[in-house]
Amino acid sequence: MLIGGRFVTTVSIGRAQDDARNCGMRSFACMMGAVAGLLCAVLLACPATAWADDPTGPFHVEGGQLGADYPARYNIADNGSGNSLVNAGVELGDFVVIGGKLGTDFTWFEGILTVKTSTPIEILMKDGVNQTTNRISISLNSDKELAHVTLAGVTIRQTSSYAAMRIANGGVDLVLKEGTQNELASGENRAGLQKETGDYVPLTISGGGKLTATGGSSGAGIGGGRAGEVSSVVIAGGEIVATGGSGAAGIGGGSSAKANDITIDGGSVIATGGSRAAGIGGGDGGLGNGVTITGGDVTARGGSRAAGIGSGYLIYDKTFANDITIKGGVVKAESGGQGAACIGSGYSGAYASIEITGGALSLTKVGAGPYLGGSDGAYVDIKGGLFADSTPVADNKVYGVAPASEYKTMANEDPATKDAYPLTVVKAPEPSTLTLKPEGTSLVYDGAALEATDVVATARYGSTPADMAADVAFTHKTASGAQQAGLPKDAGTYTIEATLKAKDVGGKHYEQSKVEGQITIAKAPLTVTANSSAITYGQKPAGAGVSYSGFVNGETEAVLTGALDYDFTYSQYDNAGDYYLTPKGLASNNYNISFESNRLIVNPAPAPQVTGASLDVKLGVAFDYAYTLDALLPVLEDACSYGTLAYSLADDSGMPAELYTPDTATIAQSELTLPILEAADVSVGPVGLLVIQIESQNYRTFSNAIMVNAVEREVLSAAVSATPSTYAYDGRTLGAAVALSGEAKNAAGEAVAGTFAWSDPDAVPTPGDHRAAWTFTPEDAFNYQPLTGSLLVTVTPRVVDLAWNNTEGRFFGDDKQVEAVIKDGCILPGDEVGVTVGGGDARDAGEHTATATLTGAQASRYVLADDIARASYAIAQSGSEFRPGSVQVLDAQGNVIEGAASFSYGQKVKVTAKPTPTGESAPTRVRTLSAANSAPASSGQMALFYGDVQVSDAVDADAEGVYTLEYDTASGSVPVGSAVTLTARYVASGNMAEASAAIELTVHPKVVGLEWSNTEGRVEGDGKRVMAKALGVLAGDDVAVIVEGADAATAGKHTATAVSLTGAHAANYTLPDSASVSYEVAAKGPAGGGDVPSADETNSAGGAGGKAAKPLVSTGDGAAGAAFAMTAIAFAAVATAVAAVARCRRGRTQF
Description:
Layout: E1 2-3, E2 6-7, H1 16-22, H2 28-44, E3 75-78, E4 83-86, E5 89-92, E6 95-98, E7 106-109, E8 112-115, E9 121-125, E10 135-139, E11 146-151, E12 155-157, E13 165-169, E14 171-176, E15 181-185, E16 193-195, E17 203-207, E18 210-214, E19 222-223, E20 230-235, E21 239-243, E22 251-252, E23 259-264, E24 268-272, E25 280-281, E26 288-293, E27 297-301, E28 309-310, E29 322-326, E30 330-334, E31 343-344, E32 352-356, E33 360-364, E34 372-373, E35 378-382, E36 386-387, E37 407-411, E38 423-427, E39 429-430, E40 433-436, H3 452-455, E41 456-461, E42 464-465, H4 468-471, E43 472-477, E44 483-485, E45 492-500, E46 503-505, E47 508-510, E48 513-521, E49 524-530, E50 533-536, E51 546-549, E52 561-568, E53 577-587, E54 591-596, E55 598-603, E56 613-618, E57 623-628, E58 645-651, E59 666-668, E60 671-676, E61 685-696, E62 702-711, E63 717-723, E64 726-728, H5 734-737, E65 739-745, E66 754-758, E67 768-778, E68 787-796, E69 798-800, E70 802-805, E71 810-811, E72 819-822, E73 834-838, E74 846-855, E75 862-864, ...
Helix pairs in contact: 1-2
């Protein structure tokens, strides 16, 4: 951290022990010296310099000036609003590290940059430093982690026995930054890029940069150091140049070490082994086991006596084979000579297992030894690929090895690769299929040679269709018998031979097939159509060329033979019109020609010069003038004729509308008829032109004009009168109602004969003032003009009388309405006049007025007198009645009771009633009514009456006019026990008189229940009486029960019977059918005991509504029984006394 311009930093000393160990010292003095050195480094701030990054990043800097007091490094990027400082780096020795955090993701100690985590970092060189002896170490926490390191122009050249880059622990994803040059050169016994991790701990190299990796003596370019095996190396991209030191592979094991699982998927790789070591694979004495190439451009050069790809020299442990697989890419392998293979084993380099299924191989061996295999035997399985081998195809070998069974060596036919790689290995050939279409197949000349699809029916390799253009070749015999390559073009019949070439498809090789057949190419249709031609009447006919339809493949009429000529249907001086010309004279070997005719149009000649004409017409007189139009035609030269002529009126717009109606002139053949109107207000002299259009078959249409001149007629004067000039509207026409008379004279004062008439005599004048037009028509209409004028005629409205209906004898509810009817004869035939009445629909009783108004289309022609337009009428009170079914008695459940109704005392009687007006006068009634226990009914209300006494509340009608009445039988207003008649009475209102309906019903006494007492525990002389209480009596009613046989005193069985009811309301109740109870009186026993009836001897029946008598209980003999009996008697006496007092208070004694 910078404070006040001074740089202060902290450096870890966690590796002091390692430093002491590296010095080879164990003494205390040496250790203290190391510690002292570290402290000096801290004070001098030399080991590490932090590059500042704005206020954030690995360090926080305070004080000083960026760039002046301490260095700064940024990658500059655009953040969207201008350049921004991003990706701050940390300068460590000669390195700059971007990404991660110093002390956490990487450490620095004495020139070693150690990557500790999987956080991505980028390593580049410090500015101004081209190479360094600083080192890079990958040491993650475990082999399961993966470091992400990008080299961006790093050059490490070690002079000591150290690895430039060492992978000690963990997998590595190493990216070569696009466009950068990177170099890793290690010291003795170290690989340039040294991988020390075991199997399945990957090293993957990718990117777009270059890496030159050079091992020290006994160290691989990329792989193991001395005696260091390597495994799980993948090269996926970049440009890799790997060179092993003495005894070590370019990519693979170090000296005396093998290589396992090396894969090249892409990029450019040049791997050169040191002496006795493979380019890719094992070092001196090491196997190349598990080398796989699937892509990229790979060059592998073995050291002396070692394979280009495979094992090194002299393998002692031959337990494992050299397992090499090539599936793709471009592979160039060069052996180290002296018995070593290009791909396989070095000299005495163990058994080799090689599988080749693809790729392009170019092998160069030095001296003796195989291209593929090994000195100790090999298994080579070739199932595909391209080979830069010149071995004849017939030998069925590539680089001295025969392909796998079912595979065969073939010549490479691919134009892009066959020169560099003449041989290919494919599946053994199988028969191909080739058939031609049958003779008679429709083929038509199209200007080009036939294509394979035109003649081949089937061409396939197994189930795969052949490429017709590339795989099938043809020859054919011409008409002269000559054999030519390809398919024929011209129409004709040919013999052809088709050849389907041998080809590798789907991993199989298919043999060549040949077939012969005959074809016919038909002529193509060609239509030659004459161009339409046009000449002028009198000229000689001539053609105007032709058009062609049907030429194929861009051919033109140049391929035709013969000379073009025409046939015509026209001769000179024939009438103008449409004729035809037909081409002829052309021929072809490849076309069937059809000749099509076209129009020869003979156009009319120019129009001849014409002169005009004139026609005089008189004003004011209608006349049809005739004019012969042939006189307008100019004379033609000899041999020419007009042909057919047609005249038409081309323009009459110059004629005045007062004199002539447009388009009324007619032409029949050559005769013009011009209807002139009797207009008078047109100036005398020329009034317009009639343009006549003349259509000639042989000459263009031309026009001639007729000048129309107007001549005036004499104007007359007249005196006119109308009789009568005023009258009432009666529907007659003007001509029938008013007479017209007068006299006309000429300029000389002479009377002129003629007729005066109304201009519109059939008009029917309606009420109002009218100016009626008249016309005088002279008998001599050719010399005199007609005379017109108008007279005032006044028409007054016609008076209408009405007949009024329903204004007398009206009553409320009679459903009548006042109406007015127009009396017969008031409205003239054809006129639509009606009457509406307002105020005629009154319903309530009282005085009313109805008003009539005339309506209809012709109502304005008529009028009502004031005394007729209104009518007064009165509506009297109506009688009222209850119609059948309008009065109903309902039971307690709301059901209608049919016939006489029956209720028990205490129930409520419900009645619904709806009075209806009779529409007639009501009889006069005088009645005195009184209300019992309710407010008396008022006008328009209803109540129930018994006689003239109101026994229910008065109610109003509901919205439907229905009254609901209710009588409580407990009120006592109606006697109980006999049939009575109640009256539902409507109280008269202004609209309806009183009405009533009788309701027959009976209120029966209510049956009471009985509750018996003093029927149990009876003993002679106990002084008790059997008593009964009435149950079900309404609250407030006074009812008691009279019992006979209640006071039996002798021992034995007895019966008490309720014989009647008594009390103020006893008449409203009745006893049940069963009103008796049995009881038993026991004999009075001697002192100290007595006999008591058993329970079985006691009567338990208590009668209807009574309670069952309980059995007496025996108390045994002696004083105890007597005491019990005396106690019971005492209680009974008290109860009897209390009851007697209660009865005395009511003034009588009852049970």
